[in-house]
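Hi L.,

As promised, histidine kinase:
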Amino acid sequence: MINSLSGRFLVLTVIFVMFAEVMIFVPSVARFREDYLLARLERAQIASLALLADDMIDPDLEEELLLNAGVFNVVLRRDAARQLVLSSPMPGAVTQTFDLREAGPLMLIRDAVVELATPEPRLIRVIGNPLRDAGLLIEVTMETGALRHAMIDYGLRILLLSAVISVVTAALLFFAVRRLLVKPIRGVVGVMQSYSEAPEDARRIIEPSATVRELREAEEALRSLQTQLTQALRQKERLAQLGGAVARVSHDLRNILTSAQLFTDRIETSEDPIVTRMAPKLVGSITRAVSLCESTLAFGRAEEPAPMLTRVQLAALVEEVLDAERLAVEEGQDISLAADIPSALSVRADPEQLFRAIANLVRNARQAIGGSGRGGEIRVGAESGEGVWEITVADTGPGLPPKAREYLFRPFQGGVRKGGSGLGLAIVSELVRGHGGTLELAQSDTTGTVFVIRLPMGDLG
């Protein structure tokens, strides 16, 4: 029970209530002591009235009056003279004097604590103001034994009452917390456990019903999360099925296109002018289709193979990428491709995977500029930074639309071209991550787009 929310709340409530009662206990006992002493002064003043009424009092009657008042002697100051009104033999010397006329709250609390901490009876003198202005002061001498016993008895009754109040309060709060908080929380936990068993089942999504505002907000947030997760799981399942189907189709289609490539090699040797003019376009189309099939199959694998890291002369690799893309520039398109890479710069990477990554970025840039209907430039640059190599692919194309930037590195969602698969940037991102690097969209607006690949130098930097 102590590990439950309601159990801990019960214990904390008892502790806090008892603490509050203890804070009240000390001033209460101090006030009780003051009232006790004032009562003794009042009894002593009443007893002294008998002597004021009759100067001659029988010694036995005087002793009885003092015994009823609980004091050993009574001194009154009327006008300027002190008068010993009643007296009896003193059992010892007076050890301390308390003047209630000048005592403040802190002094009374201090005196009460000292009284409780002193078990031995003492003889004390108490001074106060007489009732109804019957003199300047009244002074009595008394023993502290009865006072201390009365204070202890009063304190025990206060502590017992405090304990009862704290237990009753804690019990009421315990049941209130169980009803208002613990029960709704258990309901939410039950819904979460049920949902975790079958997250694809929309019937298990929570329906907010709490009347407490904070709990209702938590339920609404949970419903939103469950709804998004259910939709994501359904989409993931559909994409997995689609991916499997696409992979199978791409595999067979690649084989068919590979065969078609062999036939186009012979078509290129034809002397027919029409065939000679159309053959390169046919070859380019089939090559792009084969590349798309291979990209789809590569992404359809569980993961890219681990990169085989070696030293790569970056300038030569990028020039090979640009040469391949220059051949793909269609007739009439004003697209220039250039590299700005130090000839001595080498990076640590898998040459095949780095080629694919840069080629995808350059191809996307070329297709973006070509689709805009105007000319442009693509420039690949590289430099050594602090612990990283930075490879930049920049173009002067139209920039990426907002939707493409939102789903930039998600497969089948980040495509920009009409008919595009949206796999290119997803593949590049995966290849770069395999090298321990990052792919970042540094700029994309009407003046162009800039992608930055950062590869860690590691121990070979």
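The mean pLDDT is 80.

Thanks again for sending the construct details.

K.
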